[in-house]
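TICKET: design request
STATUS: open
ATTACHED STRUCTURE:
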């Protein structure tokens, strides 16, 4: 019995560390890997980012970068349309509810489209629209499908920092 108590006391700090790490990764922040070129030139294939899972519970704003779940897995995209909004892209101009929006995240030569976000839905697009599989193909995403917000790149080391 003494041996068991000794082993338990020895392992206790390690078990606490494991539980804390699992809780943090499950509910607060987790790493994510960029897969593909659909977010070029903001994010590149293979880069590692931190996904803030708490941030999605407070606010998701236009132009935030988020990770969303869909049938094929998880994807990293930029929020363009908020709940209840109509997003239209025509003649290389972005319109939200009929008003022109000037943005650094609008790229020329994107095909025209119109998307509507329902209640609790978001329109998300890749920054590299020519090759992005996003709301134009998958439709608007419900808030419950948003895993979290991306704000920090941690790999490669030469690119560590906040993401805009």
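STATUS: resolved
RESOLUTION: sequence designed for all positions
ATTACHED SEQUENCE:
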């Amino acid at each position: 019995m003494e041996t068991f108590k000794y082993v338990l006391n020895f392992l206790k700090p390690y078990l606490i560390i494991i539980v804390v790490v699992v809780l943090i990764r499950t509910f607060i922040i987790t790493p994510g890997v960029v897969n593909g070129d659909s977010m070029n030139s903001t994010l590149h294939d293979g880069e590692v980012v931190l996904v803030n899972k708490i941030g999605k519970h407070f606010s998701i704003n236009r132009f935030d970068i988020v990770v969303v779940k869909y049938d094929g897995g998880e994807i990293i995209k930029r929020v363009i349309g908020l709940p209840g909004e109509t997003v239209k892209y025509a003649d290389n101009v972005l319109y939200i509810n009929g008003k022109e929006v000037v943005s650094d995240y609008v790229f020329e030569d994107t095909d025209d489209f119109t998307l509507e976000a329902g209640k609790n839905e978001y329109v998300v697009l890749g920054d590299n629209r020519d090759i992005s599989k996003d709301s134009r193909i998958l439709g608007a995403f419900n808030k419950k499908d948003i895993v979290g917000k991306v704000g920090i790149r941690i790999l490669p080391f030469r690119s560590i920092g906040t993401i805009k």
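CLOSING REMARK: The first strand starts at residue 29 and ends at 33. The chain has a mean pLDDT of 89.
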